[in-house]
Every structure is written in structure tokens, then in C-alpha cells.
């Protein structure tokens, strides 16, 4: 990269959790500057957010449309390069579309949109404009997840038979304060969140992780969704039987009423020769279980020798030596950094490396939306199996 | 107990894994002696087994019928008190029935029979004869499993919402030597094993554990079974969506092709107020996760003070101080000891304590067989949900 | 073995913790019967203990001297074969000596005696009488400890450089009820316990474990002992710098005031090529950490292939398949079983196998007593290093 | 903060591990910009480093003296605010002194200097100039370490009795490539590293952590240092018995030849009422072990209710919700952010919050150097105890 990229942010005003995460992820490697934002539809909150982020007043905009329009008019060496969209799901499509159509690249939080229809339109825009879109399926940014993917691809485990992926949380075991006050917990509001709370918020992460590591695609599923908490309108728990390409089978569980759980994403994949296990709450460990051998613990950042050498995809996404834990923010930052490297390479007329290109894209976004809609469709059906196609 | 109980064994000749386990479990507490056996239909193997177990030749019998007949004729202070049945599943029903009808009590390995029909007949015989039958669902013998059950019952977690129980193994990832040689891996032979390999061998353990701890009953299920290994006639993997009484939902996974797994039984149960987690491979830990509180680790054998005091069901089944791990053999021995205490109390005209009575019975055996048959029925159905009734 | 061995017990009356452990360990494998005992100097407690253990009244003796004298007069096919000594430390020497001099073998709890002098006299008696003496340093009975020893011996880790062994407990963080009532917590009474509480009770286990696995001997040490609890006369915590043969160094920590710890024995050994780690509270795991390779987790009971094949010393001491945890009682039982196999082989004029002979002996007892005395001597010295010789 | 702080870096040219870590830590929160640097004495490497960091050529300086001199002449709203010193230990004192004497604040990597004498001079300069100096003892930046400190201070564990702190690494189990080639592994070169390799590089982290959490001070120690690797001139392993103020005792182990270990910092502290345990490789867990209660696992980022409420010092240093792991880079960033908040508050004439002021200072640096020198003195002495005073 010959210069830092300039980022504009849509959403992410003060006290918005995910906006702060995106900023840390963007800043960490010193390759991206925040230069402008449309942080909030509340002018005062927008202004205070801009000030807290040390932005000049004239680059804090009242809404994303104004931001995109005004920035597009700034000199090329001043205006933003891309936008980061950290708004509720229903406000992903609009800014993503407008940004790309005005020559800006896009990072967007997941799920990409609130419908397959919107998702496919974004896919079409990406194809048409040639712009770069990154989707922040964070868990695929961890080095040991990338190591897992590389080992599966290399045939280390033989043909894959079974995939168990789960994402239990407990934070919606009760109505949130916002729900209780009748206010806007937007995630639990179908108008802002989409067709499924639990699948949109976290199930889609699990589905992406399963397909990312295994290289397989879900082709049929059988789902049971539940809304356990009185007074909640959307589902907060779901379990899904899965059938994958190449004969693999699996189970996906996503739950926000698993009281006492934090963010316990975990995946286990078993092939003919062995299995692997990875968990978000212990992310620098990749447990490898081969038939007839002691279990192996691959750990981030080690300079193992052959045949254990860590994949270039793992090492490219590691910042510090083994034993010094890297966490979720670094996984998030890997998506931003790879996106930035890709955008920069394209600007400079270069081909991005395979490692730089390794971040979730609009195709993952389309599959994610299709996953949500297929789960809901299956849940409402009495047929055991519902076909998953895009 | 005023004297040791005398045990006769059916099956369990030399090199039979589960017979040896039963004997260790029976011997450990010094309350049971092995006095006779019908160890094998092969006379030489039977004789050698008897000798290795230090039995007199005249109490090593050629088959269970002879054993039961001859022992019944011995003086009351010599003859066996009960039989332990450790044969393949298809040879559980016969000796159990004959023993009870001749005045002997019974310990039988799981699954209790090869059909619901047989199971119900045993249930009827127990009712008619008043004999005691214990079924060795080992995992319910662990102190921390009993603690979990007690805490659920006490309302510690509030109303139960979600149950995830799993039993992954990897040892059938390939055809076994016996299968390959065309020989008798009896578990994989429907004639000896029953309608499902994976559910009979291990799934039924998982189902029992879920119902034992939660106090709930499965009422509907949706199953997907698979036979992954070429050349195997029976299923070796299965996943099941569950619906329980009182509105709880769950997932049960049983797999023998999860390559690299050993005996990784694990259960997680979530209620309105918190959740619990227990695993066979780390059995002295009960992880308790309450909303708004640090996680707690209840450990076997501790003299916690109120409100953490361990249940009498946990302490009754613990032999040594905390930090000194007890394992599967002790859990197994708890079933034998509680059975022995119950049988002795009954003989002495006393009422067994609630703690002594806490072992799996013929009712659990009937539900176990119904679980297997319902899973198979669901697997073969295109309907999403299949009713589980007994 | 052609017959069961017959055991007499010295100490271990009702409610005595360690006596019950010894009995379970002796019974588990069906190779040893309890035939007599001198359980208590209190006649009523002795009688009740005998009754609870289903012994005939005439083989419940008032004291060990009477027991040894009377049993020696019984017919050869009736009298006990060996005694198990589970009394306070000060009553180890007497019965051990008398038993061996009357032709009986001996299992004795650790520490072997209360002085090096006594220990050396027992060593002389063993040599003179040719009897077998086993010392219950339990932790060396675990399969994964034996695997560790085998791997060190095979040079897997190269030359050993560093040994860290620790045994933290918390149960003496306060005066015990017995101490508070001015009564007999014999462990904390120098007259019954010996020169050091913490080193006699648990430090000697740690020292034995370090020497057992590493094959090295402590040659110099530097100790700091403390009595932290007001009202206690003996030490309850100690830390020791160690120097071993062949240039290895180490640290040994033993503590009974590490509040909240249970029995957290742990050892780590590092060589030129890699290290190992083992812990009592997770005893079926042996963590192997080789330079440049993923960590490996060797687990009890697996049929690994070369070069990972488990040592015959590990498999000989394993009863059940991998993933089914074995615990402290099985480790204890391994000492009894190996002792029984050795005694039986000798009686039958056979040479015991190397695996059977693998239990702690009188030599370990002598080193244990010398360790305790050297630690106390070092503690009282202002010199940094105190020589450890026997 | 009303504006970002401007940082100049001394050392940290391309491929220098610790410089990159400092930059990530400084950038992450968007409160610090890198504006200049003296990255290397090699002009080409310096230029390339500056370019890779997107700096203008005129702010890449040939050495720290030039940098400090030139920056001091720049306008107040352009020039750097502070320097970050990431050079070998022998080049800490010079730039720190010069910076403070020219009105710049300082972040310096540990150990602060190469002698107590230098350290005390820096302490005097801090006092004289009123400048702010932060020392990057990273482990004290973790939220759960701060929680531990707060709980000890609140008396949660009662009077502290025992502290065990350890820092095993394995990366110096062999001569490094630089050592082998006769080149400059500066850590192992006494001229650049100071009096002890193992204590300067990692032992001083362990000592700081023990004093930071416990609030106690080491007053006497007894050390044994070793150089295990042939061809290495400095020590690579050390064990130390400790005596603290208020009667506590402890053990400190630092080792760089613990083959297979990564950065396994771990501390355990035991008081009259309970104990705590924390480890760098699992940093979001604080294990709390109270007498008579189940173990508790305090985890970063949770909104526990009273009496479990996390300390404001823990929450101030946490960025994301529980279950999303934060790692070493975030701990490092906490030092930078707290330093930046403190410096900004002072500039703005405000009093920094207690939470902002919670970073290691020049006083910690003086104690760290005294620790190293006292350990070396003890190692060379035949007396058991060497007094630790500053």
C-alpha cells in the first residue's frame, strides 16, 4: 500500500457497540484513517460522535446520502475511499448500493441485507461496477479458522462427513431493557432486523463458518425455530439439521436464550481420517484429532516445521508471537486489512494476493440471506427437508 | 447391608470389554462377590474365564439357563442373589426374564432389549415378581450428574428451555477388524444389536441422560440417520431435533464416525435463570452459568456451605475427597452399589433410601427402546415430527 | 495369579479416609480379599469396622501384634498373605517390621516411617527377609505418569534441564476442627506425623513423582518452610529449589494453605527437545510440547500407532477404553495389583514382569524420609544449598 | 481528549517485533497518530520503515537526538507530543532522558534501563520535569489482572499468604540463528541487555505482576540462575524464593528453555479466605477459589451484579462484550490509552481519573531494575537470603 485508505462511516454513533468495533478493526494496522461519517440521524448525537472521533465538523454528515454526494465532490486526494456500514440490517442495502454506484468501495456488517432480493441486487451492482465489498463475518478472520480451512482443503482429514456448528448466547434470556420499555431493540424488530432474529444475528455467522472451513455448501435443511421469551415477537433460538454437498451432514444451533453463555461459537468437522475443533472463546487453539494419533493443538503464531507448517493464510493474519493471545478485534481487523490491501492493489493496477482476497464478499452475503430465508421456510413447513438454493 | 451379595454373570468371558467393567464396578466397594457365571457358549473359553476369576469349576455353567436352574437348587446361603447380564443386546431379554421368574434380581447392560415389545414384557415381569432390575446407564451414576439433576429439580435454573446432548465417538470411522473379516462385530449386526447401531449403542445413553437430569420427557422428535462407512449395514451417525414436555426443545447427536473423538458425552441444559454443562471426559466438573454472575464450577467431593451445599445424591455417590478424580468405573460402581443396597434392604424388609433407589430401572429401559424405535421411524418418514410415546 | 491374595489391614477403622481408599484399591480387580484386620485400638470401633466389612469376629484383632501372631498360626491356605498399613505415620514402622519378620508381605502408606533411621531399618529387613514392600505413592500409579516416564527414558525430550513439581492444597487454610478442639489432627502432631507436616503429607509425593518420571535424583536443595495458620505447631507450606543429577534444576512447591485448591498435583519437565506436563486433577491427559511442533495430548487407553504407541507400562495399568476417565482409585489399584502380581509370581517361583514390578518400594521410602529431613535441615540453615544424600 | 496525541518512535524499524506491537497498541483506539520516527541507525532501513508507515520523509530522522532536537523546533500544533522507545535495553535511558528534558512525555519498553543507577536518574528527571513516563509491563494492562488487583485490595481473599508467579518460554531452548551466526541477538548480549537475560526479558514482568496484583513488595529473595544452552553467555533460566511485606511468601520462575512453552505467564495468589489464578494464554478468565464455595470464573466484559460487579478498573480497560476474546494487543493498548488520557488531562489542566492513571510508571521501572540486580546478587551469594531494597 502506498498510502492509507480513507474511510467514511455510516452509523456507529456514540455508544453503538458494533461501530466502535469496526473502528478499532480499521485503525489497528495503521492503514486506514476515518475521515468522515454519517453517524446518526440525531444531529446532536452525530455532532458529538464526530467530535469524539476528532473529525472536522464539515465532514460529519446528517445522513449517508448527503455524505456520499458531498464526498464524491471532494478532490480525489481528500475524499473518502470507502464506506463502512454499521447500521441496523434494514439500512445496509441503501448506502451500499449508493456508495458503489458513486465509485466507493464498501465494508458492510452482516447480515448483508434484509432479503435475498436486496442481496442479489447488491451482487449485481458489484458485478456491474467492479467495486469491492467486504462482509464482516468476523470468525472467518481468525488465523486458526484459516488454518482449519487450509487443512481441510489439503485433504488432511479426508472426505468430510460431519459438521457441527453452534452459536449459543444467553443475553436475550430476558427481554432487554429496550424491549421492556417498548423501545427499539432493533435486532428484535422484524422491520429493522429481517425475517429471523436468531438466524440473522448469529445463525448466519455459524452457517458461513461451516461453509468457509469445509468448502462444502448446504443443500437441504430442516429447521425448528422458537421464541422462548414472553413478549418477544421474533425467534430467539433455532436448531437445524443440515445436508451438504458431497454427502456430508451436519447440525447448526443458534441460540440467544442459552442463559449464561457469552459468545460461544464452536465448530467441529469430522472427515474420514480425523476431525477438527475450533471455538471463538479460545480462538488461538485449533484442536486436530487424527485417528490413531495423540490429539494435536495447533496454536496461532508458531513457526512449526513440516509437516505441521502453518498455512500462509494463517500467518498472513497473525500479528504477534505464539502464546500472546490475539482476539476478536484482530480477527475483525484482518477483514479490514485484507479489504484494504485488495482495494489498494486494484487502485494501483496490481493483482491482490490470495491471502489479501481472503475475506467474505457479496457472494457470502447472498448465501447468508438465502440461509435465513430457507430456515424460516423450513420452520414453517411440515416437510422434513427444505431445499437450500440461491 | 448385613452380608455381601452374590453375583452370577451372563456373558463377560475373557477379553469381553464390558464384562470386565461390570466386574470392577461390582467388586470395588466390597459388597458383592462373584460366585458363578455362564461366561461363554465356547466351553473352553468359559472354563478359562472361570479359572481366571478364581471360581470353582462346578459354578462355571455352559449357558444361562443351566446356571439359573442349578443355582436355584443351591442352599439359600450359597446360591447367587442376582445375575449381571453383559451379553449382546439380543441376549438380554432371555436371561433377565428367566432370572426374575426364578427369584433372582437382575443387572442388565443397555439397551435393555432389542425391541419395545421385549422391554414391555420385562416391565410386566418386574411388576409381577417384585424383583429389582437395574439398567447400566452409566453416566447417570456420576456424582456431578446427580448434582445437576438435584439443582434442576430445586428450580435453580428456572423453567428449562433448551437441552443439547451429544455423544460423539470415532472408533467406527473405519470398518472394524471384525467387520472387515466378515465376522461378528455384534453391535453392527442388526440380528444381535437391534434396529439402530448408533442409537442403541450410544444414543440411548444420551437420551437417558437428558431425561434424567432435566426431569422432562421427549414427546416429539425429528431424526436423520446415516451409515457413512462403506460396507457397514447399520447407521453409524444420527442427529435428532427434540421437543420435550413443558415446552423445552433440544438436540441430540450420537455419532460413531466423529473421527478422533473418544467418548465425549456432553450435556448442556438452559433454563430461564441459567444453564449447566457436564461432560464425561471431565466428569468431576459441573459448570453452572447463571445470568449476571461469574460461572461456577461445582466439583465432586467438596464440602461446600449453603447455598452451594452438594446434594445428598451427589455425596452418597462419592468415595474420595475433592481433587482426587473419580471416573467412569466409580460411576458404574454407583449403580451396582445402589442396586445392592436396594436389594439388601428389600431382603431385610427395610425401605431403601432415596439415594439407594437412584439407579436406572426397567422404566428407563422401556423408554430407551421406544426412543430407538421412534428415531428409526422418524428417519424413515418425510414428516418433520414423529410422536414419541411409550 | 492362581488364587486371590488375602489381606489383613492395620488401621482403617470406620470413617478413616485412607483405609477406605486402600480397600477399594485392593478390591477393584478381584485379586485380593480382606480376611482380617486390626482396625482400631478402640474395641467397639474395631468390632463395628469388622462387621461393616463382613469379617468374622475371630479375625478382627485388638492390635497389629496380636493379628500378626495369630494369623501366623493359621493354616497356610487360610492365613493372610500380606498386611496393609494405613495408620498414622508413627505406626508404620512397627507393623511393617513385625509383619516381614513373620513372613508377611507389606503395603504401607506414605511417608514410610517418621525418620530416615526407621526407613533404613526397614530397608535392611526387606533385604534380609526377601519380602515385598509396596509404598503407596499413588500418583506414580497413573498410566499417563508411566507414559511420561517411558518417554523420558526413551530420550524423547533429550537431556532433561528443568523440573517443576507442585502439590497445592487448601484444606489446612484454617485450623481443622480437630486442631481447634485441641484434639488429634495427627498429621499436624509432630509425635505422630514426623518432622514436617507439609513435606511428610504431600511434599514427599511431589519429590517421588519428580524422581520417578525424570529418572534423576535430587542432590542439593534450598528450602523455605512456613507455618501460616495461628495455633498450628507444624509447617503448612514449603518451597524448595532443587538441583538434580546430570545438571537438571527444579522447583518443588507443597502447600496446604493454598486456599481453594483441592489436590492439584502437577509436574512439568523440560528437556532439550521438548517438555511434558501432567496433573492429578486431569490425569488422563499427558501434554507433550515438542519444539517446532503442535502440542500433543496423549490420552489414557488409546491404541495409537507408531511412533506414538503407548508404553506397555501405560497400557498394563489401564482398564477401560479411551475417553472413559480413570481416576485416583484406579491409580491406587494399580499399585495393589502390581504388588499382588509380584507377590504371587514370587510365591509361584516365577519372575514378575517389569510392568508388575513397577510400584514404589522400600528404596523410595528411604529417599522420601531423607527428602523430608533434608528439607527441614535446609530450612533451618542460612546456607543456600544443603546436600541431599541418603 | 480534545485531539489525538502525536507520537514519535525510537527504534521499531521494519521486522522489529516489539515496535510493531507498540504501534498497533497506540493506533487501536484512534487517539494517537504516529508523526515521526528514528527507526534505525541504518539510513536505508529507516527510510523504508518511514515509507511503509506512510510518514513524510522529513519526519524520518537518523537518530533520536536529531528527532528530539528537530521536533522541539516545530510548531506546537505539529510537533510530536511524546516518544515511544522500543530499542534494545541499553538505548532506553538516553532517549528517555533527552525527551523529558525537552518537554516530551515518554513510553518506554521494559526493562526501563540497564541499571538501577540509570533508573533512579530517570526517576529524578520525572520528578524534576513533571513529565509522564509509562513503562510497558503489558500483563498489568489486562482487565482480569486489574480485577484481580481490585479484589485483593478489597480484602476479598483476606490477608495474602502465598504468591506463585511464573513466566516459562521455550524459544531460547536452542541458540537463536543470530547467536549461532555470532551475530547480535541483543537480548543475549550483556552490553545491550543488562545483567540478566532471563530476568530482564521476562522475570521483571513476573515480579511486576506479583507486586501489582498483591499490593505487596518483595523484601528478600533467594535466586538460582542457570545458562543451560551451550554457547550462550547469559542466563536463560531462573528460580527465586520470595518473601514479601506483611509475611507473604512466594516463588518466581522465569525460564526461556522451557521447551515447548510459548508465553505462559501465570500467577496464583492465596489469602486466608481464598485464592486467585490468572494466565496470559487464557487472559479473559480470572479463576477465583474461595474456601467452601464452588470455583468462580470471572470473565472479561460481563455486567455482573453485586456482589460480583466487575471493578471500574476492569471495565475501563475492556472494549467489547463478554465472550469475544480480547488479547495481548488490547492489554498493550490499555497502557497507551491510559497514558494518552493522562497526558491529555494534564495538558488540559485536568486531573486524570484513577483508571487513566493506572499504568506502570518510573517507580515500577526502578523496582524492576532493582529486582534484576538483587536476583543476580543473590545468585552469586552463598547466603540463603538477599535483601531487596531500592
Automatic annotation (TrEMBL), chains A, B, C, D:
Domain GFO/IDH/MocA-like oxidoreductase: 145-276
Gfo/Idh/MocA-like oxidoreductase N-terminal domain boundaries: 5-136
Source species, domain of life: Bacteria
Coiled-coil features, chain-numbered ranges: none
InterPro entries per record: Gfo/Idh/MocA-like_OxRdtase_N, Gfo/Idh/MocA_oxidoreduct, GFO_IDH_MocA-like_dom, NAD(P)-bd_dom_sf
Database matches in PANTHER family: CONSERVED EXPRESSED OXIDOREDUCTASE (EUROFUNG), OXIDOREDUCTASE
Protein name: Gfo/Idh/MocA family protein
The organism of origin for this protein: Sphingobacterium corticis
Amino acid at each position: 500500500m502506498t498510502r492509507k485508505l480513507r474511510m467514511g462511516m455510516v452509523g456507529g454513533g456514540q455508544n453503538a457497540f458494533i461501530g466502535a468495533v469496526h473502528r478499532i478493526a480499521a485503525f489497528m494496522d495503521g492503514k486506514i484513517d476515518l475521515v468522515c461519517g454519517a453517524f446518526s440521524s440525531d444531529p446532536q448525537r452525530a455532532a458529538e460522535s464526530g467530535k469524539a472521533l476528532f473529525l472536522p465538523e464539515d465532514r460529519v454528515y446528517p445522513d449517508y446520502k448527503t455524505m456520499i454526494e458531498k464526498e464524491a465532490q471532494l478532490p480525489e486526494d481528500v475524499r473518502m475511499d470507502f464506506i463502512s456500514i454499521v447500521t441496523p440490517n434494514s439500512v445496509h442495502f441503501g448506502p451500499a448500493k449508493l456508495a458503489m454506484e458513486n465509485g466507493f468501495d464498501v465494508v458492510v456488517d452482516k447480515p448483508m441485507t434484509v432479503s435475498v432480493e436486496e442481496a442479489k441486487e447488491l451482487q449485481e451492482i458489484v458485478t456491474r461496477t467492479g467495486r469491492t465489498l467486504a462482509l464482516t463475518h468476523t470468525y472467518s478472520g481468525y488465523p486458526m479458522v484459516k488454518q482449519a480451512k487450509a487443512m481441510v482443503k489439503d485433504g488432511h482429514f479426508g472426505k468430510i462427513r460431519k459438521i457441527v456448528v453452534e452459536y449459543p448466547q444467553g443475553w436475550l434470556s430476558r427481554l432487554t431493557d429496550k424491549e421492556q420499555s417498548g423501545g427499539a431493540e432493533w435486532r428484535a424488530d422484524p422491520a429493522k432486523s429481517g425475517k429471523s432474529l436468531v438466524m440473522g444475528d448469529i445463525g448466519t455467522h455459524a452457517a458461513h463458518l461451516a461453509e468457509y472451513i469445509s468448502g462444502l455448501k448446504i443443500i437441504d435443511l430442516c429447521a425448528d425455530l422458537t421464541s422462548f421469551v414472553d413478549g418477544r415477537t421474533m425467534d430467539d433460538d433455532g436448531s437445524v439439521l443440515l445436508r451438504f454437498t458431497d454427502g456430508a451432514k451436519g447440525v447448526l444451533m443458534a441460540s440467544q436464550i442459552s442463559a449464561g453463555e457469552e459468545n460461544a461459537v464452536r465448530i467441529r468437522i469430522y472427515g474420514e481420517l480425523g476431525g477438527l475443533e475450533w471455538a471463538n472463546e479460545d480462538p488461538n487453539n485449533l484442536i486436530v484429532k487424527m485417528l490413531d494419533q495423540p490429539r494435536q493443538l495447533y496454536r496461532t503464531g508458531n513457526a512449526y516445521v513440516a509437516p505441521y507448517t502453518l498455512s500462509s493464510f494463517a500467518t498472513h493474519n497473525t500479528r504477534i508471537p505464539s502464546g500472546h493471545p490475539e482476539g476478536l478485534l484482530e480477527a475483525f481487523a484482518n477483514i479490514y486489512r485484507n479489504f484494504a490491501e485488495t482495494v489498494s492493489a486494484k487502485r494501483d493496477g496490481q493483482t491482490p494476493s490470495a491471502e489479501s482476497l481472503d475475506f467474505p464478499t457479496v457472494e457470502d452475503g447472498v448465501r447468508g440471506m438465502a440461509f435465513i430465508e430457507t430456515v424460516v421456510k423450513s420452520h414453517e413447513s411440515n416437510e422434513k427437508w427444505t431445499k437450500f438454493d440461491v
